[in-house]
Design brief:
The complex is a heterodimer of chains A (160) and B (216). Chain A has 160 residues and is mostly helical. Chain A has two domains: 79 residues, Rna Polymerase Sigma Factor, Chain: A, CATH 1.10.1740; 73 residues, Winged helix-like DNA-binding domain superfamily/Winged helix DNA-binding domain (Arc Repressor Mutant, subunit A), CATH 1.10.10. Chain A starts with a helix and ends in a 6-residue tail after the last helix. Chain B is of the alpha+beta class. Chain B has a domain of 142 residues. Helices cover 58% and strands 16% of the residues of chain B. Chain B has ten helices and five strands, in the order H-H-H-E-E-E-H-E-H-H-E-H-H-H-H. Chain B is rod-shaped, with a radius of gyration of 35 Å. Chain B starts with a helix and ends with a helix. Classes of the chains: A mainly alpha (160), B alpha+beta (216).
């Protein structure tokens, strides 16, 4: 059982990361609350030590991804949201670049996670494959296709 | 260009303070409500206690008895760790303590003391384990010159220990009484209780003489 101080520091440090993964996966702000509690409660109850801060971050990302997946498995949460709702969500979470967020949120689910981890968190394809338990070649293909789709929607160089 | 825009777009996504606080409040309230039962600690403590109690118990329980009989009789009660845990005396009082000594050291100490003249000490080893009794006799016979030269050895079972105790006699003396009774069924327990070992030896010699005369 972790100390209150430890939990507070973890929430302070990784709340934004968890929130971003929730946006990428859930496309619905209202559900974020549940995932938040789920992830940090797991952290509070996780007794093993982390070998490094990177290890801890990877653990938080993995647990959040799994919590989102579990949430979406529920029959009531499978309903797709409309394009208008995606636009509304993108404008709400990223007022400076709503068109970019909208393009990201319109990508298929597996593409969105790979793009977030690759562009924002700076993980390599090999690291993403390890984190998401996928084949490296699958991740290369996913990233390639995601970049092409983003280029179509946003314009510019797909190799950026 | 696209990479920067994506980074900036994600950078804008923040968890607000209300969400963080609400999460913390929920987790901390769940933590105080449900403290995990310290199973490991309880089990370890119970195991240690059990081992300690078991250890103490097994130390104090005698599993062998060694009876030294001459004019005086001393009975040593020996535990599974081969240590003397208690002593019973008959027709004498011990001046030296042999408690907690190894049984070979205790027997040597007693044979070297004034209690025994070492001319004709009978040492009887009794216990449930016949093999263990024989091994103890071997160890006693080889532990010192005193033990080797001045004593005769025999074994008995634990049932005999109880019978001897009932008759308020040392094990060696009781065993001698049983042998004597086989030779002369008229001998009574009271008579035997009042006899010294030397007297019993003499009586036995007499009875043996009678038997040889009768047979031959």
């Amino acid at each position: 059982m972790r100390t209150e101080e430890d939990i507070r520091m973890c929430v302070e440090q990784y709340a934004d990361t968890v929130r971003r993964i929730c946006v990428v996966n859930l496309k619905n702000e209202a559900d974020t609350d549940d995932i938040f509690q789920n992830v940090f409660l797991k952290y509070a109850q996780y007794e093993a030590d982390f070998t490094s801060e990177e290890h801890k971050k990877a653990w938080i990302i993995k647990v959040t991804e799994n919590a989102c997946k579990d949430f979406l498995k529920s029959f009531f949460n499978k309903n797709r949201i409309s394009l208008d709702e995606i636009k509304e969500m993108a404008a709400s979470v990223s007022p400076s670049h709503p068109e970019v967020m909208e393009a990201v949120l319109q990508l298929p689910e597996s593409y969105r996670n790979a793009i977030y981890l690759f562009y924002y968190e700076g993980y390599s394809a090999v690291e993403i494959a390890k984190l998401l338990k996928k084949n490296v070649n699958t991740i290369y293909t996913t990233l390639d296709r995601a970049k092409k789709q983003l280029k179509e929607r946003l314009g510019g160089d797909e190799d950026d | 260009m696209t990479e920067n825009k994506i980074k900036e777009a994600f950078q804008e996504i923040k968890a607000d303070d209300t969400l963080k606080q609400h999460t913390l409040d929920t987790i901390l309230s769940k933590q105080t409500k449900k403290k995990p039962f310290p199973t490991k600690l309880v089990l370890t403590t119970a195991l240690l206690l059990l081992t300690a109690v078991g250890g103490i118990f097994s130390y104090t329980v005698p599993v062998y008895a060694i009876s030294l009989d001459e004019d005086a009789s001393v009975e040593l009660h020996v535990n599974m760790y081969q240590k003397v845990v208690s002593v019973s005396t008959y027709d004498t009082t011990l001046t030296t303590s042999v408690n907690n000594m190894g049984y070979t050291e205790a027997v040597t100490t007693l044979l070297d003391s004034d209690l025994f003249s070492n001319s004709n000490v009978v040492i009887t080893v009794a216990g449930n384990n016949e093999e263990g009794c024989q091994k103890m006799i071997q160890n006693l016979q080889h532990c010192s010159n005193t033990c080797m030269a001045n004593a005769s050895y025999n074994t008995a079972d634990s049932e005999m220990i109880a019978q001897a105790k009932e008759c308020d006699m040392s094990l060696g003396k009781y065993k001698m009484y049983l042998i004597l009774k086989e030779m002369d069924p008229t001998i009574t327990l009271e008579e035997a209780q009042n006899m010294t070992m030397q007297e019993m030896h003499q009586r036995m010699g007499k009875e043996m003489g009678k038997m040889m005369k009768e047979s031959g």
